[in-house]
Design goal:
Layout lengths: L2 H4 L5 H8 L3 H9 L7 E2 L5 E2 L2 H17 L1 H13 L2 H33 L14 H8 L3 H9 L6 E3 L4 E3 L2 H15 L4 H11 L5 H35 L8 H4 L2
Helix pairs in contact: 2-3, 2-4, 4-5, 4-11, 5-11, 6-9, 6-11, 7-8, 9-10
């Protein structure tokens, strides 16, 4: 790319094409302070620069890794904030992904252990009430009721008051739901998965679900790495010092 091309004014459509987003999204990013307001021609048309295109492209990649709200914050801080603030935000994003990855690993180990437990020798008095199961899982009883309303659990009703009774199989289901929720699994996928686990309990289906979760974490981590160079370039573009490091200008 020649120097003349590098400094050629860009249209809104040019910025959108380079960032891989819509023209309206470019305008929204300007409105939200992610992009610095561009210069205007006498007739009112926006005149964008390569720095705007870089910020928009970095945002699009980041949004896939940390979500739109966090991506907007990261790009704004990269453009106008202290470098130390940006690094702290990036560290936190990586730490969250690390925690999710660890939780998926723990859930995988727990699911294998739960699936290996025999249910054939269960006895009637092994059943649990809602309060007993809630205490065993360290969750509120209301959480178990919510899971039931969402179709994740199917306890039986017994006695005059038709109280919930969780059989050993129901307890097993609750433990699986609990581990998957800890691993960040959302209710709709769980609602589709749990019916297949009942009865014979195909734990392999849960393992496949956790692999999909791993792949999602990998994709988001990859997006963070891909966006790192753009964030660094944005920090340098806001500095007039020859070294390109804004931190030296604030010392």
């Amino acid at each position: 790319m020649t120097t003349a091309t590098l400094h050629r004014p860009l249209r809104t459509a040019d910025v959108a094409r380079r960032a891989g987003c819509s023209v309206q999204q470019v305008r929204n990013l300007e409105r939200d302070g992610v992009l610095e307001p561009p210069a205007r021609t006498p007739s009112g048309y926006r005149v964008w620069t390569e720095s705007h295109a870089l910020a928009a492209a970095t945002y699009v990649v980041l949004a896939a890794g940390v979500g739109p709200a966090e991506a907007r914050k990261l790009v704004r801080v990269a453009r106008t904030g202290a470098e130390s603030d940006l690094l702290a935000l990036v560290d936190r994003a990586h730490a969250r992904l690390h925690t999710e990855r660890r939780d998926v690993g723990l859930a995988r180990a727990a699911i294998v252990a739960i699936g290996a437990e025999p249910l054939d020798d269960a006895r009637p008095h092994d059943a649990m009430t809602v309060s007993e199961l809630a205490a065993a899982l360290a969750v509120p009883a209301s959480t178990l009721r919510y899971w039931e309303r969402q179709g994740l659990l199917t306890p039986t009703r017994a006695g005059r008051g038709r109280a919930r009774v969780y059989t050993p199989a129901d307890v097993r289901d609750a433990r699986i739901v609990h581990q998957l929720r800890l691993a960040g699994y959302r209710i709709p996928p769980l609602r589709a998965l749990m019916p297949a686990l009942r009865g014979h309990g195909r734990v392999s289906d849960v393992a496949a679900a956790l692999r999909a979760r791993d792949e999602n974490i990998d994709a988001r981590s990859r997006a963070l790495l891909q966006a790192a160079s753009g964030l660094l370039a944005l920090t340098a573009s806001g500095c007039s010092a020859p070294c390109g490091r804004r931190s030296c200008c604030r010392s």
